[in-house]
Structures
1.
Amino acid sequence: MTLSIRQFPCRSDNYGFLVRDEATGMVAAVDTPDAQAILDDLAASGWGRLDLILNTHWHPDHTEGNERLKAETGCVIYGPEEVRRAAPLDHVVHDGAEVKLGETVFRVAEAPGHTLGHVVFHAVEEKVAFVGDVMFALGCGRLFEGTPEQMWESLQHIASWDEATAVYCAHEYTASNARFALSLSQEPELVAHCEAIFAKRERGEATVPTSVGVEKRFNPFLTADVATFAERRAAKDGFSG
């Protein structure tokens, strides 16, 4: 694999990600939930540099480390225009753009729904994607700014990728999502999948990354139609299981 990925917990339930292109040694942080946690992990990695920040959307738990990390490392920040609502941004990315981390190419796809300008970063050849708050393991983001139609289309786009694609979502919400999925279905394979998730969390293990194939099989928000998606998203908003 031409990419090395370090994943570490930040804040209450975020994940931070550092990504290294092995051919050149260039390093990127995907979102910046906690500048100190990112700097600490960068030091632990021995990688010795931070070249890029890739922001998926503007929310502070994804951007608040931008200013400090840029000041301390000189890194260059890529993200959607909306990031400027909360943090510094050097280069605006749009649907279909490519961001290069050394020899690794991340394809940008607009993925509105959670926010209107949300993007995802997809390294197609490496079968790796960073999807922010669009898709979660067994879940999807809340519709803070977008419509059900927008989020449904964003999820459908992710589901169209190679099933082996590793999906790095930004929060550890999987146990709650699993309980909601079980409220909709007691299909034996789903029950077994959720039991494995609960066991992982009891051991303190991460459930991220997931994969496109796993989510196509089990994620209750990858529905066949927008109306069902909207129904389930509204139900999850009020779910307390």
2.
Amino acid sequence: MLITKDSFGEDFMWGVSTAAYQIEGAHEKDSKGASIWDVFAKKKNKIFANHHGDVACDFYHRFVDDLELMASLNIREYRFSISWSRIFPQGDGEINEKGVDFYNRVIDLSLELGITPWITLYHWDLPQGLELKGGWINRDIVSWFERFVQVCVTRFGDRVTNWMVLNEPVVFTGAGYFFGVHAPGRKGLENFLAATHHAALAQASGARVIKQTLPGSRVGTTFSCSHIEPYRLLARDINAAKRADALLNRLFIEPLLGMGYPIKDLPILKRIERYMKEDDERNLSFDMDFIGLQNYTREIIRYSLFVPYLRAKIVNASKRKVEMTAMNWEVYPESMYHILKRYSTYKNIPPLIITESGAAFEDFVIDGKVDDRKRQIYLQKTIEQVLRAKQEGVDVRGYFVWTFLDNFEWAEGYRPRFGLIHVDFESQKRTIKSSGYWYSQFLK
């Protein structure tokens, strides 16, 4: 199928996404406080090859060149996050005006270059000062977060219309508070359930703060989601897939839509009620202006007696002998279509935007060029699946590539490269990949 930008209509939004800790560096610059990732990444053997984000892409010092490069590639929508600990070095207390000034300069230059800013308020980098008070397992985080949101929309809302409250809450609660493989490294079911409920409350309360402060704003939040299929058409695999789907795809969207947690299909969630107070169920819901979906692959699920609570496990792509990315995820662009169709079936679902989509492959600079044809093909085929869903009536209004620059990829360090722009992390040299040139031409 030959598709063009025009196939989607003139109002469809095309952009790129990044996150503060993954690109900014300058981890102590201008009175910035430590985040949980600043601390976690320094612990031995937590991150691939003991990498950390102290410098990352040095976007803090290089944002002028990077934004000019973005504009030169015809990219006109830019999603980025605000580092909470740049604004509040300890998470609360006094505002750090130098941090506010940095984001003012990023916003102002974006607008000057014709780039529309989309701000994510929480992309995983909780101030360490708040983690010492319990972080997401402390119910007070809802009010801490509300204050942070209030300051951001007050200081930046005169120029920023588009806001996202949380980035992939099921990932930062699951990986950070159940498995302990992401910051802050906490483990256990009770930590996870408490963090989940408080994040779900903050998701709605943060949106309310934005709308009350900026009635004309466009407010959403983003969810990671994977197309789920059972390994075999056996009852126990089908039921295991339902449980995995409840956890991975439904845990945060359904309470936001006023449906409550998906306890029926994942009974262990009934324990979350011990963290609920009067009016919580009502306060979990909010009518967002859009929902951001972030899909990278599908997951094949089989029953497993040995996985506690879930009784389900992922059948790894490597065992299925399918094409994989550098993250060992199956290359399956059709997953995007299935996810869009699935979320569109929710009653009263707002418009959908693909706020992250991309793939990590092994890249090489040869004679000053990076020929990443696999990434280009992946993006082309995935965009085709977005159009397929749109043509079948799904109200999808935008597509943001993850990501603009190769960056610090959390526990995987700098090994996987997702960027349209190759970054030499020793010299900080930027090299536009063939996928970046392709995306630029597509947008032109």
3.
Amino acid sequence: MSEVFVFDHPLIQHKLSIIRDKNTGCKEFRELVDETSMLMAYEVTKDMLTEPIEIETPVAKANCYRMSGSKIAIIPILRAGLGMVDGMLRLIPNAKVGHIGVYRDPETLKPVEYYCKLPQDIEERDIILLDPMLATGGSAVAAINFIKARGGRNIRLMNLIAAPEGIKAVQAAHPDVNIYVAAQDACLNEHGYIVPGLGDAGDRLFGTK
């Protein structure tokens, strides 16, 4: 079974409280999602392997460390996942960025892929899948399916807020995918929104309420 990591860093929790607030405007919401994603990038990558390297400072030689050949891919789920990309890239500027678009068929209620563009060497990369909200888990499970079908294997899922229902769905379908969140909320309501959540992340990011 995969693990769930909840980040309790004070900066992450402070910013998340403002993100949740219904009175936070679109500009500030977007900036805070960006900043929180950058802070979470620090946490989600902390167990990636490093290797020793000798460099020369202006004063002397020094034994240092660098990430050991890690190739990273950042994959946002459209559209809300786009709001998390720039913050991640600030810390991992050499990462390649793919995109996955998923919608729910109104008749079957099953997720349908409408767009998927991934780095050609996706099977060689450590993959961080981004979506602000993990609600029912349907989109995340489908996106992971699409990535695995194209050869991706080492996948981490990163969300601002997750509901227990979504976590359970991802763990059942993909027990090899660890989940990284800033908060785990109580439940879903009858409309499938996370409670207390933050509303519709995509609408709040892009001002389409």
